[in-house]
Design brief:
Elements lengths: L11 E2 L4 E8 L5 E4 L7 E3 L12 E9 L6 E10 L4 E8 L4 E5 L8 E3 L12 E8 L8 E7 L5 H12 L8 H8 L7 H5 L2 E2 L5 E5 L8 E7 L4 E9 L1 H4 L5 H9 L3 E3 L2 E3 L4 H7 L7 E12 L4 E12 L2 E4 H8 L7 H20 L9 E6 L5 E7 L3 H22 L2 E2 L2 E2 L4 E3 L5 H11 L11 H15 L5 H11 L4 E3 L23 H15 L8 H31 L6 E10 L2 E6 L5 E5 L9 E4 L4 E4 L5 E3 L3 E10 L4 E9 L9 E3 L18 H4 L2 E3 L1
Parallel strand pairs: 12-19, 13-20
Antiparallel strand pairs: 1-2, 2-3, 2-5, 3-4, 5-6, 7-8, 7-10, 8-9, 10-11, 13-14, 14-15, 15-18, 16-17, 18-19, 21-22, 23-24, 25-26, 27-28, 27-33, 28-29, 30-31, 31-32, 33-34, 34-35, 35-36
Helix pairs in contact: 1-14, 8-9, 10-12
Length: 690
């Protein structure tokens, strides 16, 4: 018996091998139940999922082992708690019943709506339905229409639906808004006396050009003997949000802001996020600050933490600062160059200590006045972004180190750390074999060796079409960063202590950090009740926000590709499953599916999980993650949020350096390649050598 089921687990039921855990369903449709205390997740094949959906808390019965005996296999026996019970979609009304056709692939079947539960919805309406009953005995869940979405535009319906179905309300309750408006503008003289005054020190904000909530600022002044004072000033949201107030409860419920391509769903009402708390230029603002005595080499001699009041002298967009860094004249250019030198040295120190250098490539959409994407911009992390990033990381780490060094009644102070565990060994082992295709040899003997190997790989592929795929695949081998009171350090950053202190306008854990930090400074510690449960909630909400953002970006990708149906693009294979593979266009970073149905005439393909590949039984033809292919856009379905590609060029076979271009065939079908396969000669004639 494997070691992961020898001991009785607190999440295991008596008698049968029955466990309770959280279900995660992959893009291929296979589920994995994450059970705390088990070494490995339990795999659940599609036919054994019952009615469970991704994110649900479930009971799973172990039925055996995977084909390679490396993982437990099971069957869902009960859904303990649904992650999501409301879904958006289009209403279809028939004479005796109705259906809601879900827009999200998270709900794989239509929702049956009895006529008396339509609640005014009409045929063709876009609406939100709540599942009221669903058992394994019925294929379709029974639901009730709870709201008809506004019909301003298709885009508006889609974005509203994504927010609602992931649990993010479209508006704030009246009592929350009333809470927000009762705070006066400006700063109070009595409150200023309680704080360190930085209003006479040069202070600036650096943010995206379209930002409205400025939650961090940097101050700078020159000291003697090559030292500088750099202040990291963060909006003092905790000054305004009183614990257990209506405003606080709503902020906790949301736990994070959600950033969609055309809007922000904020954690806080606009009165706070864009006005009172936002560190707007030429206004006095309350802040919570970490101030450093530091030299150009990034060596910190001393630091101070406490509440402050600041006055931002200048608001910069990242692009403005980048131009100054690259040599253009501008306001405070000398100070910006010094700050950049310090940041570069801080960055080098991190990587020497084991931080992993995953780049932050971001795909942004150019939208017209109706929210329709008319172009795509790929934004790379440049020195201006890294300047801000390094000082935020320094502040976060310093605050966590300070609190982590304190005791309360002989025990560590309960605190919401941001932690990141070491990579999953099995996933890492498979990934390193794959990375070997690109000439990278991984050192798996130590955590520092692993991080060094990752950095070497990322440097090797930087600028190549497969860079994005390898980065995403590498990230998948990593554990997920979470909030918890159990400080195990942050592997990806190479920090022993880390927390989130720098974005309280958009993250609730930062508000908790501010509150606990002030208690520590005042030496009046009152541990927050159920802090670990709050950490779990914030981690869950963060994942929901990320899922919402990914779904919205996918929607925009599909909408963008609607204007390119019939066109061919160079692409890189970005995912592989039993039913086909996904490819991402090199030019636009838009992803689509090449179905196994369209590959069947090429060969009989087998999915090889260990190689992230589909491999032809007869030809040896392989479609693997990172391979370059040429595809044609066949369709772009907004309802399913899915783009379908047709393969137009077959990658080279082993021992054959050239690729093969497929002639146009009916229904997007293809046949075997002419070289590298010695089979049916008639079918071979359908290929031409490129």
């Amino acid at each position: 018996m494997p070691r992961n089921i020898k001991k009785k687990n607190k999440n295991q039921d008596a008698g049968r091998k029955l466990y309770t855990g959280k279900l995660e369903i992959t893009r291929s449709g296979v589920g994995f139940v994450v059970v705390p205390g088990l070494d490995k997740d339990i795999m659940v094949e599609r036919e054994n999922l019952d009615t469970a959906l991704s994110g649900d808390e479930v009971k799973v019965e172990v039925k055996g082992y995977s084909d390679n005996n490396r993982r437990l296999k099971g069957k869902i026996t009960q859904v303990v708690r649904r992650k999501q019970s409301e879904f958006s979609g289009k209403v279809e009304v028939h004479p005796h019943f109705a259906f809601l056709i879900p827009e999200s692939d998270k709900m794989p079947v239509d929702i049956y709506i009895p006529l008396h539960l339509l609640n005014g919805a009409k045929d063709g309406d876009h609406a939100m339905a709540k599942v009221v009953e669903w058992t394994g005995k019925t294929k379709n869940p029974v639901g009730e229409i709870v709201s008809v979405l506004t019909n301003e535009s298709v885009n508006e319906i889609a974005m509203q639906g994504l927010l609602i179905e992931n649990g993010f309300p479209l508006s704030f309750p009246d009592d929350v808004l009333e809470d927000a408006v009762r705070y006066p503008e400006g700063v109070d003289k009595k409150e200023i006396k309680k704080r360190k005054d930085f209003r006479d020190v040069l202070t600036m904000t650096i943010d995206p050009v379209d930002a409205k909530d400025f939650d961090d600022a940097l101050s700078f002044r020159v000291l003697k003997e090559g030292w500088y004072e750099v202040g990291v000033h963060i909006a003092d949201v905790s000054y305004y949000i009183e614990p257990d107030s209506a405003l606080d409860k709503e902020a906790y419920r949301r736990a994070t802001s959600v950033y969609l391509p055309d809007r922000v769903s904020p954690m806080l009402p606009e009165r706070l996020s864009n006005e009172l708390c936002s560190l707007r230029p030429k206004e006095d603002k309350y802040t919570f600050s970490a101030v450093f005595k530091i030299n150009k080499e990034g060596h910190v001699k001393d630091h101070w933490i406490g509440r402050t009041v600041i006055h931002s002298d200048r608001r910069y967009a990242y692009e403005e600062v980048q131009e100054i860094i690259e040599g253009k004249s501008g306001d405070h250019m000398d100070e910006i160059h010094v700050l950049n030198s310090i940041a570069k040295n801080l960055r080098q120190q991190r990587f020497k200590k084991g931080a992993i250098n995953f780049s932050s490539q971001e795909v942004r959409f150019k939208l017209d006045e109706h929210g329709k994407p008319i172009g795509i911009v790929i934004k790379e992390s440049k020195e201006a972004h890294q300047l801000i990033e390094e000082f935020m990381l320094l502040a976060n780490r310093t605050v966590a180190e300070y609190v982590g060094g304190l005791k309360h009644k002989g025990e560590p102070v309960p605190f919401p750390y941001r932690v990141h565990d070491v990579p999953d060994e099995d996933k890492l082992r498979v990934f390193t074999l794959f990375a070997g295709r690109f000439g990278v040899k991984f050192d798996l003997t130590t955590p520092s060796g692993i991080s060094k190997s990752f950095n070497e790989m990322l440097e090797t592929v930087r600028g190549n079409p497969e860079q994005h795929v390898l980065e995403q695949l590498g990230i998948r081998t990593m554990s997920k960063a979470i909030y918890t009171t159990d400080n195990i350090g942050h592997y990806g950053l190479g920090f022993e202590h880390y927390c989130h202190f720098t974005s309280p306008i958009r993250r609730y854990p930062d508000v908790l950090v501010h509150r606990i930090l002030q208690q520590c400074l005042d030496e009046q510690i009152h541990p927050i009740k159920h802090l670990e449960a709050q950490c779990r909630h914030c981690s869950d909400q963060e994942r929901r926000a990320m899922e919402t953002e990914r779904a919205a970006n996918k929607y925009k990708q599909v909408e963008f590709m609607q204007d390119h149906v019939g066109e061919e693009f160079d692409a890189v294979i970005s995912g592989v499953a039993t039913f086909g593979f996904w490819a991402e266009t090199v030019e636009h970073k838009c992803e689509g599916m090449v179905s196994m149905t369209d590959l069947n005439d090429l060969d009989n393909f087998v999915f090889n999980e260990g190689e992230y590949a589909l491999i032809g039984r007869g030809t040896g033809l392989k479609f693997a993650m990172g391979d370059r292919v040429k595809v044609k856009v066949v369709s772009a379905n907004l309802i399913k949020r899915q783009t379908d590609f047709m393969l137009t060029e077959v990658p080279a076979l082993t021992g054959n350096r050239k690729a093969f271009s497929l002639e146009s065939l009916p229904a997007g079908r293809a046949s075997r390649p002419a070289k590298g396969y010695k089979g049916d000669k008639k079918k071979n004639q359908k290929f031409k050598k490129r």
